[in-house]
From TrEMBL:
Domain of life: Bacteria
Gene3D superfamilies linked: 2-enoyl-CoA Hydratase, Chain A, domain 1, Lyase 2-enoyl-coa Hydratase, Chain A, domain 2
Similarity comment: Belongs to the enoyl-CoA hydratase/isomerase family.
Bilayer-spanning residue ranges: none
The protein, known as: Enoyl-CoA hydratase/isomerase family protein
Length: 263
């Protein structure tokens, strides 16, 4: 099993689709060539993919959009409309993907970088990890879905404070708020995030897909609707190959072979 460092292109390694969103070039700002490549990779999703890992390949996960490019555009509004459209295509494809999304968040996650942290299922950071909306500082409103995802993570009032005040959030506070799942050593972030992603590859993929779907719909449904959906889902799962393997393995006191039924 390879333990690769993050690469500068979309790469499938041991069932994990690694999607870089920034590089050391241009101060680790969001690279839209990579974003477009990642969107295409998600649209071509195949059964060989068991998890998604978002990475940055420089000192930061993503320092946000390239403000110098914004400033140099002949029509800044048209330019940002184009870039926001590309980013939102990626966020939609990421959300629609059937497998868990893990983010390896080193250094800064600012602007759209913070938006993508909020779009992940599990975010691994280090002591130096720092998040910031960064939009008010340059007189722009948010994008990347952060006004949808952030209130669902931290609550509506705290989200208002963070976005309006352009709050800088350190690693410990980010864990407390639920923006980061946990902290490891700064030099261990990618290794741990990749380990977490790989754990999903060999797990019950159908179960993960259903969990993500249930969580995604829960804010917009009544308790009764959610209970009904959960009931129907677990009944379907019980007769699936994954459910049968899991229950039979438990009764037989053996480790379930989910990899075999994932094929």
């Amino acid at each position: 099993m390879k333990n690769t460092e993050p690469t500068d292109t979309a790469t499938l390694v041991d069932g994990v689709l690694q999607l870089p969103i920034s590089t050391a070039a241009a101060g680790t700002s969001m690279d839209f060539t990579l974003i477009d490549e990642a969107t295409e990779a998600l649209r071509d999703y195949g059964a060989e993919i068991g998890a998604i890992l978002l990475t940055g390949t420089g000192a930061n996960f993503c320092a946000g959009g390239n403000v110098r490019h914004f400033a140099a555009a002949d029509d800044r509004g048209a330019y940002l409309h184009e870039k926001a459209t590309a980013l939102h295509d990626f966020v939609e494809a990421l959300t629609a993907a059937p497998t868990p999304v893990v983010a390896a968040v080193q250094g800064w996650a600012a602007g759209a970088g913070m938006s993508l942290v909020c779009a992940s299922d599990i975010a691994i950071g280090g002591p130096s990890t720092t998040l910031r909306p960064a939009y008010p500082g340059i007189g722009l409103s948010p994008d990347g879905g952060i006004t949808w995802s952030l209130p669902r993570i931290v609550g509506a009032r705290r989200a208002r404070e963070i976005l309006l005040s352009d709050t800088v959030i350190g690693a410990d506070e980010a864990v407390r708020l639920g923006l980061l799942s946990r902290i490891v050593g700064d030099d261990e972030i990618h290794t741990e995030a990749l380990r977490v992603a790989r754990s999903f590859v060999e797990g019950p993929r159908v179960t993960y897909t259903t969990i993500r779907q249930l969580l995604a719909q829960s804010p917009d449904t009544t308790l009764k609707q959610q209970l009904d959906t959960e009931r129907d889902g677990i009944a379907i799962a019980a007769n699936s190959k994954t459910g049968r393997e899991g229950v039979d393995a438990f009764v037989a006191k053996r480790k379930p072979d989910f990899a075999g039924v994932n094929q």
